[in-house]
Design brief:
The protein has about 325 residues and is α/β, with parallel strands linked by helices. The chain has 11 helices and 14 strands. The chain has helices at about 15-25, 45-60, 75, 100-120, 135-140, 155-170, 205-210, 210-225, 225-235, 240-255, 300-325; strands at about 5-10, 35-40, 65-70, 85, 125-130, 150-155, 180, 180-185, 190-195, 200, 205, 265-270, 280-290, 290-295. Helix 1 links the parallel strand 1 (about 5-10) and strand 2 (about 35-40). Helix 4 packs across helix 5, helix 5 (about 135-140) packs across helix 11 (about 300-325) and helix 6 (about 155-170) packs across helix 8. It binds NADPH dihydro-nicotinamide-adenine-dinucleotide phosphate (NDP). NADPH dihydro-nicotinamide-adenine-dinucleotide phosphate binds near residues 14, 17, 133, 158 and 242. The site of NADPH dihydro-nicotinamide-adenine-dinucleotide phosphate has 27 residues, from helix 1.
Amino acid sequence: MTAPVNVTVTGAAGQIGYALLFRIASGAMLGPDTPVRLKLLEIPQAVKAAEGTAMELDDCAFPLLAGIDVDDDAARAFDGTNVALLVGARPRGPGMERGDLLEANGGIFGPQGRAINDHAADDVRVLVVGNPANTNALIAAAHAPDVPAARFTAMTRLDHNRALSQVAHKAGVPVAQVRRLAIWGNHSATQYPDLFHAEVAGAPADALTADTAWLTQEFVPTVAKRGAAIIDARGASSAASAANAAIDHVHDWVLGTPEGDWTSAGVVSRGEYGVPEGLVCSFPVTSSDGEWHVVEGLEIDDLSRGLIDASVAELEAERTAVRELGLV
Ligand code: NDP
């Protein structure tokens, strides 16, 4: 058996954490041959609840689970970590302005970035789930100058999976027959799910893209506002589907994307498709040899261009705001 991979999960006592940890321990994220050591980070008042989750993890007797640590100290929780899932974040409270939210999260993701820089393993890979995920990833990366920026990513896989499912329902095909969809931009209501390169049952999705009214008035808003629809129906925010998307993201990052298909992830822009360098932006991506690669050379139609630019403008505004706050 190979040496265990150290996986740190922040916000481990939260809803997403609870849906995530058992699947990591079962091997869903890194495969059936890779043992894992879980390192749970929580704020002091949630450590006891995280310890309860650790007891349940123990009680599952997962053969791949090599150990569990629970801590409220970031230096210890990121010590030797190979995969860091940054889930815990400060939610927007009543009357909180965007600047307050960014500042509160800067106080979490800056120190966590620094702790990753100083203590994580050389091959560390970071996925930020906690919102505003793209800008939190930007802040964490800015505090980790010794870690390649490309190792910091933000989750848009849930948006991608939601879009796949919407298309499968509309086209009446199994979800596995929908490929090459792309989420562009920010993980927010401005994100753009792009069908113009998608394939349904092996053929271009022309029938769907030709229906501009469905595309712009149903599909795009349904995907972008799915989180709110789930809160409305469930009385709580999506957790299992967010955890599932985090598993998918890391699985594909480490083990690769299937030949001929791609997925979506928030990665540091190198200027692809005119997205300003350094922004953590969602692109269509493939993964091989443990690295994400933006799918290049796609033709972008006018409708898509406008929607991508709007979401990228939001990311730029968030970057300007955190620069003004001295967080990056
Ligand atoms: P959740 O586990 O439900 O959510 C955690 C974060 O994930 C939130 O920022 C949430 O954003 C975000 N998120 C991203 N995508 C989604 C999605 N599709 N659906 C729902 N959420 C999404 O929050 P809980 O309040 O249950 O738990 C948070 C935990 O984090 C608490 O236990 C808290 O103690 C902990 N925490 C830990 C910190 C640390 O380890 N240092 C720091 C701060 C908090 P949104 O708010 O927009 O829904």
